[in-house]
Structures are given as structure tokens and as C-alpha cells.
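Running co-folding for flavin-adenine dinucleotide.
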Amino acid sequence: MKALALVILYLGVTLSPLALAWLGARPARSLWDELASGAGLLAYAIILVEFVLSGRFRSISARIGMDVTMRFHQLLGRTALVLALVHPFLYRTAFNPQRPWDATRQLTLTSDFTALTTGILAWVLLPAFVLLSIGRDKIPYKYETWRLMHGVGALLIAGLVLHHTLNAGRYSADPFLASVWIALFFIAALSLVHVYIVAPIRQKRRPWKVTAVRPIALKTWELALEPDGHQGMAYEAGQFVWLNVGNSAFSLHENPFSISSAPASGSGLQTVIKELGDFTRTLNKIESGTRAYVDGPHGNLVVSGRVEPGIALIAGGIGVAPLLSILRQLRHEHDKRPTMLVYGNRVEEQIIYREEIETLAREHGTKVVHVLSESPEGWSGRTGLVDADLIRGVFDFPEMDQWLCVLCGPPAMMADAEDTLIELGVPAHQILSERFTYD
Ligand SMILES: Cc1cc2nc3c(=O)[nH]c(=O)nc-3n(C[C@H](O)[C@H](O)[C@H](O)COP(=O)(O)OP(=O)(O)OC[C@H]3O[C@@H](n4cnc5c(N)ncnc54)[C@H](O)[C@@H]3O)c2cc1C
């Protein structure tokens, strides 16, 4: 329901320029011309709302999850690109100076050089911008550099299109529609201001400090933080934060990590971090007492308030981090519902908090299924992948379709698990998932 409200709001905002153009009741042109204008209006509205989608607003991500928000952002970015690319080719009317007797520009398209130039520039930049985002992993830039280019590039394109729309657009010549575009552009720009200025100012006022960094498994570290001079942060088990360790609050060097501690454990935060790139490979150099900033909590991998009669947790590798937080919280609350944890890794040395997980099994009754794809001799758990066959085998009981299922792990594992759970009769609204990569 909450998600539906967001979808309705999204459609309302992106379709409003089209509706206003239609209500403007200008004299009709050929169908192709109307389609061309419509494609342009829709593309620009989508582009402007893209800023809000990537603005880390908790009111959005807490409803549908950050990864769904980002997937939506990617899909709609590509949709806007297609609409923008076809926009100039659909026109049938000629480019000509406006005729004195044609006040509504029914017979010509503007031939004003600057209005067309900004449109052409944006038209050329947009495909390059989207392709750079799709191929982000293949370009030799650091994530932070790409992110900066992405933000600045998006604002530049949006500014160029604003100029083009206000000066070349037929429908956007209407003062009301023009003011809607200006308002949407400012909202888009404010979303960037929110991420890069407002959020860091808030974080600067509420600093944290690192209290411990220690290796806990193969290439995996535990990083603990405590609030420095404030009460900490209210969060739900399963949520995540953007963490900035040792940099200015305004630095682009921050990374998303799930909170692995339970809210009930106090005001400190614990994360478990797997070595991957430039920040995560330098954890051994972080000293206790280092200043840190936390942006969050984000994410909707939240079981609190859910009333399903059982909870299945399916993790691949470091994806176990938010699920541990959930299990720790459930244990603390003496939640009586049955819980099952399926935890896949490549090798035994990657399993984190093995003893604690055994304690959970013993004392909280959590049924734990360890899965290794490269199991050692004498291994008592399962061997293979957390795939469809394994999930069908483990969750083969009739009441499974009533359970809540929480998934976190590599994309292929999550896709397999989601499909199989749905095949087992688990409705989609009983499956919560969080991906650790936004592609
Ligand atoms: C919601 C979420 C929760 C996560 N939780 C955990 C966790 O609990 N433990 C863990 O080990 N890993 C977690 N990750 C993955 C973790 O964020 C990356 O491994 C880490 O950021 C890599 O940073 P790096 O500087 O070492 O490597 P880089 O080479 O800089 O980055 C590698 C990749 O990490 C991602 N990444 C880096 N910075 C950001 C950023 N600011 N925003 C979004 N993505 C970024 C990008 O996909 C990038 O290509 C999580 C990711 C997400 C999205």
C-alpha cells in the first residue's frame, strides 16, 4: 500500500507536464508532432524525478527498499533516454521563424539557434551519460569519481534541457507549465544539495568514532562504532548506513554497509565488512578513535512489526550481516516464532560468528543450514550452492507459504531464491530482499 502510494505519486508527477500540455488546448498538429512533444515532455519529467529517486530520501527507500529505488532509477533513466532520442525525429513540422499569425506555433518549430543548441547538446550528452552509468564497472575510474561525474553531468544535462524546453517548447511556452518545469528543476537540484550538503551538515553535528576493527574471517572484518557526544541513531534490525570513516563529513568517500548489531544491543553500531576495493582493503589501517560519519538508517529489510508465523533467512557470503542483526534482535526479544538460517559461503574460513550462530541454534532454536560450495573433507553441512534445489529441499514443509522470507546475498542467489520461494507458494509481499550492488 505504501509502495502503491509512491507509484501513484511518481506517475502523478511525471505525467503532470503531459496533462498540463493537453489541458492547454492548443490547436492540434499532426499526430507525429504531438508524439514528438509528448516524448520530450515525458523524458524531461522522468529525468528530473531521477534526482529525487537517487536522493537517499528515507521516505522513499524505507517503503520500497534502496535497491528497488535504484533499479527503478536505472530503468527509468533508460526509458527517458529512448524517449529523448526519438523526440526530434518524430516531428513533421518544419523549422522556421514563427509567423505573426501563428501565435500558438501550430505551423512551425522554432529555429532559434540557442534554444536548439542546448537541446542538441543535451541530446548528445544523455546517451554518453547513460552508457557511462551502465558500464560504470568497466571504466577505469574510482567509484567516487564516477559518482561526482554522475551528479555534475546529470545537473548539466537537466540545465541544458530546461533552457531548451522553456525556449523551444511549444506547450512549455505556457507560463504555468514553464513554472512547473522551473519548480521541478529546483526540486531536482535540491535533491543533490540534500545528499552533498544538507546530509553531511547533519552528520557533522552527530559524529561517531571507531571503537574496534578486527579480522573475524577470511578477508572479513568487524568494525564497531560508538556515537561521539550524542545518543546514537534509532534503527531497525536489518537496515544499513552509508559509512564515512576518517574523512571530512563532506567527502564522497563513503560506503553502504549493513548494521550487523541489534538495536537492542545499545547505542553502538557494528558492521561486518568484506574486502573488495579501495576502502574495504584498508580496514587494517583504521585505528580505534578514528572519526566516522553515518548516513542512515536506510533500507526496508525489516521484520519488526511483521506477524508471519515463521522467519526464513537466506544469506550468501557477507549478505549474512543484516540477517545477523535480525536474528540477534529476535533473540533479544525472546521472539517465539521458528527461524531458519540458510547461510552459503565458498569455503569454511569465510563463515563469520560461527560460535554465536551455534549458540543461536542451541538457545533460540534457530535451525541453521550451512552451505559451502567448496567443502572440506568431513564437512557436516550441505555442499553446493544456495540454489533452487537446495531451497526446495530445505523449505519443504506445508506452512512455508505463510512464513516471512528475508534474503541477502549475490544477485544470482537472490534471483534463484526468490523464484523458488514464489514457486513454493510464498507470496511476493512475504519476501524481503536487499542487494549489495546497484549494478
Ligand atoms: C545496501 C548495501 C549494504 C551493504 N552491506 C555490506 C555489508 O554489510 N558488508 C560488506 O562487506 N559489504 C556491504 N555492501 C557492499 C559494500 O558497500 C561494498 O563492498 C563497498 O562499498 C566497496 O567499497 P570499496 O571502496 O572497498 O570498493 P570500490 O572499488 O570503491 O567499490 C566497489 C563497488 O562497491 C559499490 N560501492 C562503493 N561505494 C559505494 C557507494 N558510496 N554507494 C553505493 N555503492 C558503492 C559499487 O558497486 C562499487 O562498484 C553493501 C552494499 C549495499 C548497497
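Result summary
The chain has three domains: 2-203, 206-298, 311-434.
The domain at 311-434 is CATH 3.40.50.80 (Rossmann fold).
Job closed.
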